[in-house]
Write a structure and sequence with these properties.
- InterPro entries: Calcineurin-like_PHP, Metallo-depent_PP-like, Metallophosphoesterase_sf.
- The chain has 2 domains: 131 residues, no CATH class; 251 residues, 4-Layer Sandwich (Purple Acid Phosphatase, chain A, domain 2), CATH 3.60.21.10.
- With 388 residues, it is α/β, with parallel strands linked by helices.
- The mean pLDDT is 94.
- The protein has 11 helices and 12 strands.
- The strands form 2 sheets. Strands 1-12-2-3-4-5 form a 6-stranded mixed beta sheet, covered by helices on one side.
Length: 388
Amino acid sequence: MSVVPLFLVSFLLHAWVGWCLAPDLAAESAWLGMALWVLLLVSAGLLPMGFLAKRLATPVLARLLTWLGLLCMGLGSSLLVLTVLREVGLLAVLGFDRFEPALFSVAHFRADSALLVPVLALLATLWGFFNARRTAAVVWVDVPIANLPAALDGFSLAQISDIHVGPTIQAAYLKRIVDRVNSLKADMVAITGDLVDGSVAELRGQVAPLAALTSTHGTFFVTGNHEYYSGAHGWIDAVRDLGIRVLMNEHVLIHHNRDAQDPEQAMMVVAGVTDFSAHHFDETHRSDPHAAMAGAPAQAVFKLLLAHQPRSAAAAQQAGFDLQLSGHTHGGQFWPWNHFVKFQQPFTAGLHKLQSLWVYTSRGTGYWGPPKRLGAASEITLLRLVRA
């Protein structure tokens, strides 16, 4: 990743915000105009460090600069979006002023909105930081399944996804997630990709808390796109070393009864596919729900697929799965990016039906990049199978 273009883009975007806001702030107070330029200069200089600090600084300083850079990335996003909205609002006010001069005061709108943009951006960044750093809340979801046998009625699946262990999410954060999952006493745990942002050498110790996950039938993992950015082959081995079953276009069979005294057991398929884009990194990892189903016995009464990206759903439906668990989208993570997910994925968050297939898309249990969540809370999902 080149240094100069990142800094150039960052400074140009911040300069545009300043060009739009600073004159109207300075008209009210020279100090306000100066304060805005200082804020923008600091943010513009720090933002690229969220990506570059490891290359440019010692480890301790790099960690601090990474944190500051990613915080400024969230701040810069809000500043840019709010400035765009302010410019649209200003055009509307100028239009009204042309026909109804007494309706709005253009001067007051300019001054008030120029101050409101940085204030709202700072508040959104602080509130988003709190939302991102708290331990994800549990979301309870009932999935109605036709012809579900009595033995599987109430079967519970705890899903975590998109944790992104890396520069700002490490072992202590992950341990809180593991403790909360274990408190649910689920029948199985699914990790639907994007566990890490970094190499095995950097982060092996940071993912160690996952070894403590407990459930009736164990923990299952599928790769996400960020595993491939971070060295998927090494991470597949590292996750297996934690005692977690990695599903690579394959399935396992689970035999389940509701309690030890219940003589009736039901057989279910738990399958997993590699990430939808995995073939761009390794052709042998091409995602294939049909291969994941191959050889599954006809008497398996319920078929579950773990697939990182929701867009695996069309092939999953054709392959005969009943439920797909996905992540990837983060629910948009923070406004307004949630409105853009639909252009890449069929589902943004929550439970949806695609013909005969249920698809649940997690908003993610951690976050990527800026430690910021607004309007898309992180989640640990407990899905329960119930009779339709």
